[in-house]
Amino acid sequence: MRLSVNGASYHITAPAHETLLETLRERLQLTGTKLVCGRGECGACTVLLDGKSVYACLTLSAACDGRDITTIEGIKGDDALHPMQAAFIEHDALQCGFCTPGQILAAIALVRQNPDPTEDDVRRGMSGNLCRCGAYPKIIRAVMAAAQAGKAPDA
Amino acid sequence: MPKRFVTTKVEIEGREETKIVELPARNPDPWGEDADLHVVGQRVVRMDALEKVTGEARYTADVHLQGMLFAAILRAPVPRGRVTSLDLAPALALDGVRAGISIADVPDVKIDGVRLFDQTIFYANQPLAAICADSLETAQRALEAITLEIAREPHAVTAEQALADNAPAVRPSGNTHKGSPRVSSRGDVEAGIAEADAVITREYRTPTALHTALEPHGAVAEWSGGRLTIYESTQGIFMTRREVAKAFGLPLTDVRVIKNYMGGGFGAKNGAPHSTYIAAALAKITGRPVSCILDREGEQTDAGNRCATIQRVTIGAKRDGTLTAISVDVTISLGIGGWLSSPARIYHELYQCANVRSAETFVYTNTGAMASFRAPGNVEGSFGLERAMDTLARELNLDPLELRRRNYATRDQDRDRVYSDKRLDECYRLGAERFGWTQARSRTRAHDTGARLRRGVGMSSIVWSAGGGPPAYATVRINRDGTIEVLSGAQDLGTGARTVLAQIAAEVLGAKISDVRTVLGDTERLPFASNSWGSITTASVGPAVRVAAEEARDALFDAAAEMLGTEPTDLESRDSEIHAKSNDKCILFSEVCNKLGDVMISGHGSRGPNPEGTAISAFGAQFAEVEVDGETGQVRVLRIVSAHDSGRIINPTLAESQLEGGIIQGLGYALFEERVMDDRLGITLNSTMHDYKIPMIGDIPPIDAFFVDGADVIANHTGAKGLAEPPIIGVAGAIGNAVADALGADVLEIPLTPRRVRAL
Lengths: 155, 760
Hints:
Oligomer: heterodimer
Low-confidence stretches of chain B: none
Largest interface: A-B, 53 and 57 residues
Largest sheet of chain A: 5 strands, mixed
Strand content of chain A: 5-15%
Distance between the termini of chain A: 23 Å
Order of helices and strands of chain A: EEHEEEHHHH
Shape of chain B: globular
Radius of gyration of chain B: 27 Å
Strand order of the largest sheet of chain B: 5-9-3-16-13-14-15
Mean pLDDT of chain B: 96
Strand content of chain B: 25-35%
Helix content of chain B: 25-40%
Low-confidence stretches of chain A: none
Radius of gyration of chain A: 15 Å
Largest sheet of chain B: 7 strands, mixed
């Protein structure tokens, strides 16, 4: 199969049951995408598939043939952070940082779909991403700020 | 010559140890409340945020070494019994499988009292063997090929089962810890009850809660030249090194433990767990690096938990609210092992009372062992004590806050000593004001008790030892370009320790914070600091960094004075520039160091002892408003106000993040979090993140968490105390009290799931 990951093309031969999370972490060494629950319960493995957020642990790589995948490693511009990354830093929307890549990708997908979200929209849109450190109040602030600044994502 | 080593007491999570410690080379004057500080106290951006938002931060599970193998652990399917047959050969015959180990292949090491790979089964999911293979998937599949036969025996997975007359023996030594009951008392409780105008007796229950750190326990081990390097997700690199070196019979120089980033600890990651020994043993046999990372089920069932408790409380007071007696009998479920954290201690300390008695019975059960979990003991005890205080307030027709104020403890009554500083009264005042306590209470008083949606308010108080202490060391090094490294073998769990320690060094040196980098988490390269537990890192390592930075600054000023033709005392520095007051000459750090070339400017600092006979504690007051749906039993927390006294706050932004995080974990403990066992099968029913519910973004109410002003100059010369654990302590009590207020019902048990609330 051919996967386009962060703009680079990869030809991959993998078993039919291999998940996108395994492909990214183990074959491509893109370890920013995290394994936490491995069954679609926590959102730590969130990536963008053709611009929409998906759980990489519940996505088969074979189903991604010919499609565009964006991981946390692929959202930064050449010179600057993605505005959502910058907002997460500015608002201290992270502590241990383990859920952060998934949170940021979910937030980017959310704001792309809804460029002017209310706080409730953010809560709903981000409800698939768990954070055990409890950075939620600041995640809400960061996502709202990034959206309101009109710095809507362009991943 | 002055004495160099002294004997002192150091307290961690309520445990007090006597230690001989080295006195620091210097003892700077404390930064008082009005100290003129420029970097300390600033909202400096979290230092490792960049690598965390870019995905570049490499956690233990992300470490991938050349030729690395992956391990998977075979676990016991039953809670008690014996292995009658275990054959790894069928698994070893599979393609891609490189090695397998069972009890004969590992050092004789005990974890929570159970030998690694013990053939006697003490709890479900106890490790029995491990396999490593070219891929994790191959290793996991190979587990299924192992032939395992077991003889099942009766088990006890709850305290009630373990204490029953004909209970099976959970451990050979018996079903309670030999120190049980641990009795502690002062005054005369019976006399206190006799003189009370109101006495209430209740039984409270708290659940087994699971840490659920997103990054599980795990290690990557690699041997080279007989030396072992371990990458570990740990709160204690030096403790891990000591335990691993002992197990493998190695000198400390032959074990290096590295922890750069970790995905949460919350108390469960102190010292080497099973996975570390397994990775090291498999790496030794195969001659290749081995990664052993727990899967989620392993993490939820065999990596620590907060003990379930049953608290039988009797509390008496005069009509004016003056407490006359507190008595509590606590049953604590340890699981198969662990240490004796104390739910009773907060009963002895939080409120003024002359007559207090407690008896704690620590029960072993056939379940995974407990581990410290953010303010272990106090969180559990706080729920019972604060519910009892509220019930008493209702009985006496007193405002619950007023009842607490009337029993304000000015001394640490438990250990009969003064507090270094205590601003709980200020927390009450500001917390109540920002919450609008009086107005909110009269509002909920007036509500229609027949309505479906009912609101209530509740509050609670916090006390937690937070002084830190010795030993802790730091080195501050200035490079030839003027940049600065702060080196200490502490750990940053996501707390912000890196940033806070850099701020202290920058303050002392008069350096730009952007010039300072903190390096933590490597036993081979860094001076000793203890585990990052018990809210101690800032108060322990911070003063050592201050001393080290002073020493480095003095050397830098000596060199600069030579260059500027003046005396060191004539110099001051700000933003990495040194200014001579007498001749108005300036020189940048980088210029001084560049001129010096490779002459090394550095300083070394240590943490001195705490003041004798003094309790150093953090305090707080928490207020919650809830809305309860009487039909569904759903509890919605509408808002939380949390006022804290932790002395000087080095970085308010990071500190507030920790407060919010602790409060949110407390909210989970109050409303959702509960390990559910099948008592008959003796296994955990909710070991997934779907079934064990932690707070989600939609559960989070507006949280107003803040610090009262202050600097604790008695505690240590930075004025800072710990703050990571306090914010979780009173949340379940405050929410429980608010639910009781909403329904006019007694709340005796958490979590307040809809089923329990509907039964009220």
